[in-house]
């Protein structure tokens, strides 16, 4: 390695805090008040943080974060999440009974894969390329075959129905796709799907009888900054499409604290909302989660803040909303580097550059 590099930052774990991004003050203030309630008696915390901590503690057994919650998370926190999802989706109702707080999205995915791969044959899941770097390792550990569909780099890493058709046809005879995995907003591409694109994927899933596994990180939804881009959830589009899609296509929407602005990887908590899934299947999902006893309580506290952040006029609102991603500056910088190119980014905290390597003096290139 060239001696001009004094320090190398390993970002492969997608851990923003290890790269120097600071935690959100309000999150840590509420968590501190819950862990050490004595500070709630003074003025060390702003009033809204104190009130939030007191409210959360009142819903934990013994008023302590050291007690267990329900297996799938505190019902109070699940209610907060459900209300937030309903607000996000323009009034499409969300029930706390369909919300499962888990040990991050990896645990939720493992549960869903166990549910989906009960029948005979080689189970497979359709996944994008590029995909989150942990996804293929998880599938391999679960004995699930990845069936890859390519995202179109030249059109900003978009989806194409023709490519989905090609991918599933190529899998015939060697495996049985049970689900299609979607990351929206895209990890690691930053692409935000349009409503029309989501409709195409939903129709494809219905035609092929695939379960939708959609990673819709809440922490990315709030970082959609490109002109003309708007986050719309799969659940909302599904509901607005009407029958036979709205009540026939099964969906798991996954969320985590680990990525995006929140970046609280160490809290190891996320949640999953199930849509159009039979009650018996949801009960089985809860049974599979009982081995965890309950998700980390500190993580549940942070999920509550993520789902119901400070509002305009509250003391902590200005500080909470101060951080705005400036990824377009990173894209401009990368595009000025020799051999590099990068599509514009619409959301998230990642950029996905393209590197062309010069092999020799005859201008032969390797991409």
TrEMBL record:
What organism is listed for this UniProt entry? Sinocyclocheilus grahami
Q: In which pathway does it act?
A: Amino-acid degradation; L-alanine degradation via transaminase pathway; pyruvate from L-alanine: step 1/1
Tell me where in this chain the Aminotransferase class I/classII large domain is found.
42-356
Answer yes or no on keyword Ion transport.
no
Catalyses: L-alanine + 2-oxoglutarate = pyruvate + L-glutamate
InterPro entries associated with the record: ALAT1/2-like, Aminotransferase_I/II_large, PyrdxlP-dep_Trfase, PyrdxlP-dep_Trfase_major, PyrdxlP-dep_Trfase_small
**What family name appears in the similarity comment?**
Belongs to the class-I pyridoxal-phosphate-dependent aminotransferase family. Alanine aminotransferase subfamily.
Keyword field: Aminotransferase, Pyridoxal phosphate, Transferase
What Pfam families does UniProt report for this protein, alphabetically?
Answer: Aminotran_1_2
Q: Which cofactor does it need?
A: pyridoxal 5'-phosphate
According to the record, the segments passing through the membrane are none
Q: Which residues lie in coiled coils?
A: none
Q: Which gene encodes it?
A: gptl
Q: Which domain of life is it from?
A: Eukaryota
- What's the protein here called? alanine transaminase
May I ask which residue range the UniProt record assigns to the signal sequence? Answer: none
Q: What is its EC number?
A: 2.6.1.2
Q: How is the quaternary structure described?
A: Homodimer.
